[in-house]
Amino acid sequence: MGVDEEDVETAGRGVQRDTGTGDAASDDEDVHPLRTLGGIGGTGLQLSEFMGPAGGVQTGGGGVEMRHVTEHMRPGGRGGEVVFTSSACFASATCPPPVPSTTMDTDTGVALPPMAFNLWGTVEEAKPLGDSTRKLLAKLMGVTGDDGTAARDVPVGQISLSPVGLAEGHLTALAGIVGASHLTTEDAQRAPRSRGKSSLDLLEWRAGAEISAPDAVLAPGTEDEVLKVLQYCTEHSIAVVPFGGGTSVVGGLTPFREDGGRDYAGVVSLDLARFDTVSDVDAVSGLATLGAGLSGPAAELALTDHGLQIGHYPQSFPYATIGGYAVTRSSGQNSAGYGRFDDMVRELTLVTPSGIMTVGQASPASAAGPDLRELVMGSEGAFGVVTSVRLRVHPVPQVKRYEAFTFPDFATGA
Q1: DSSP state for residue 260 in the 8-state scheme
Q2: What residues form DSSP beta bridges with 33?
Q3: Which one of 64, 75, 259, 329 is separated from 45 by 20 to 30 angstroms, measured CA to CA?
């Protein structure tokens, strides 16, 4: 699966591809990449969306316009491709740059989150502020003199992070559990796991004050390693903050060394990036088990091998993870097709200091008292670490059609 390098040029330029007999698009059709989404955990596999020529606009009475986009999906197997073609393109003339996949820090062996630590997304994705937005900021907040681009590529070295406070003995013991190459105290790894992506989080990076950061980043690779980390940290009063995609907007990533009157010996970030597999796919029943560390794009791409999809697209889709979807009860703007993510969840594997448990047993609901899934979903990781989710998946449709209406003014739309 993925896109053949011979078929696709650099993102942002026009590309050509030979679609083959019987494909939804004609041979050698000129298409434009709208977005390249992150690959599956270091494999380099990519999911690309291609938008065709602009069109599909119908004008109704009173200046009302209806716009439609029709996507023709052709699932591909390994070595094939997944192509999305459309009858209309709402993207600007300049397509956005590729969304980067998670990269591996070659010095530590710990995956580096793709988003800039002080931004939502990456510097390359930044767009200049429009004139109307700049006027509004000037009028309401007195903001003037900005260059029109909110993103700033600030080196980690220019940020003041709290020093590593966890004793060396604890670091050595934790490295013995996950492996020395899967533990790091580097600032470049600690910074992206220090805050989420709420407005308050992003403003804090600009305040100039010291940012509290986790003392270390751990990347376990098995549920047994997660269990041992939680047991060790519980015994030695070390706080653990699970980390998925880093898209939290409710303060879930902020490390506290004192909470509720309790002082901790330190705080570690437990990264789930290595839990990135798709297993036990049952296309007949429409069920699949996904690792909690899989990003939304990586999960969708992997399922196309089986002609399946999740069909869940929250605003944080390029970066959020399957585990994050579950523990935040993810919904999102495009949930109308298949519903909220928690409606799809059939079973979760949860690791707590007391042991590893599976809640749900793949059943759609429970009639035998409290359903522990309801306790785990929406918990923001407070009750344990979710390592895998078994959920309802759906066949990839042959065609998707999107419609939108635009009105010349508010009164007409009302």
Answers
A1: T
A2: 50
A3: 329
| Tokens (6 digits) for 99 | 């969304």
Specify whether the CB–CB gap between 47 and 297 falls below 8 A. Answer: yes
Q: How far apart are CA 113 and CA 154, in angstroms?
A: 16
Structure confidence by residue, pLDDT tens digits, 89-140: 222 233 333 344 455 554 567 989 999 999 999 888 888 888 898 889 889 9
The token duo for 116 is: 């800039």
Distances (CA, A) of 331 to 242, 297, 336, 360, 375: 20, 16, 9, 20, 17
Q: How far is it, in rounded angstroms, from Cα 94 to Cα 85? A: 17
Helix 223-235, helix 168-178: angle, nearest 10:
160
State which amino acid sits at residue 62.
G
265: burial class by Cβ within 10 Å (0-12, 13-18, 19+)? middle
Q: What is the pTM of this model?
A: 0.74
* Exposed / middle / buried, residue 54 (Cβ in 10 Å: 0-12, 13-18, 19+): middle
What does the block give as tokens for 223? 């549920």
Q: Look at residue 18 in the predicted model and tell me its pLDDT.
A: 31
Sorted by sequence, the CB contacts under 8 Å of residue 133 that are 6+ apart come out as none
Tokens of 144: 């003037």
Q: End-to-end CA distance of the chain: give it in Å, rounded.
A: 46
CA–CA dist 277, 162 (Å, integer): 34
CA 173 to chain centroid, in Å, comes to 31
| 287, 346 Cβ separation under 8 angstroms | yes
- Report helix, strand or coil for 305: helix
For residue 258, the cross-strand partners are 263
Tokens standing for residue 330 = 């993810």
pLDDT, greater one: 18 or 359: 359
What Å distances lie between residue 118 and 96, 146, 191, 285, CA to CA? 20, 18, 9, 42
Give the list of residues 6+ apart from residue 48 with CB closer than 8 angstroms, or none.
3, 8, 33, 35, 36, 37, 81, 82, 83, 84
List beta partners, residue 357. 350
